[in-house]
Specification:
2 helices; 4-stranded antiparallel sheet; 40% strand; 100 residues; Thiol Ester Dehydrase, Chain A
């Protein structure tokens, strides 16, 4: 979930609008309870040519103003493949991220 969510967060910032995972670090903070609604929040922190760095976390969906309960945090680097310029980019997918 974190790999896909963080990747889609940075796709718009990459030159060919697609990237592959070059590095992914996940820190698990606490177990996720079954039957919970979760939120993945991600931010693109840096872009340098075909590389993009992203950080994010998974938290419990709660009411507005509540302190977030974070289950896992991640950082990642994604690279837009050179061959992506020829083949085009994948823009449709399962995840629909409104804002990154």
């Amino acid at each position: 979930m974190l790999d896909e969510g963080l990747a889609r967060c940075c796709f718009g910032a990459l030159p060919h609008k697609i990237g592959v995972t070059a590095n992914l670090n996940i820190d698990y903070r606490k177990p996720m309870p079954a039957d919970s609604f979760l939120v993945l929040r991600a931010t693109t922190t840096k872009v340098d040519g075909r590389k993009a760095w992203v950080k994010g976390h998974i938290e419990l969906l709660q009411g507005e103003g509540a302190k977030p309960i974070i289950f896992a945090e991640a950082t990642a680097m994604f690279v837009s493949p050179k061959h992506a310029a020829v083949g085009g980019a994948m823009t449709d997918g399962i995840l629909d991220l409104v804002a990154c």
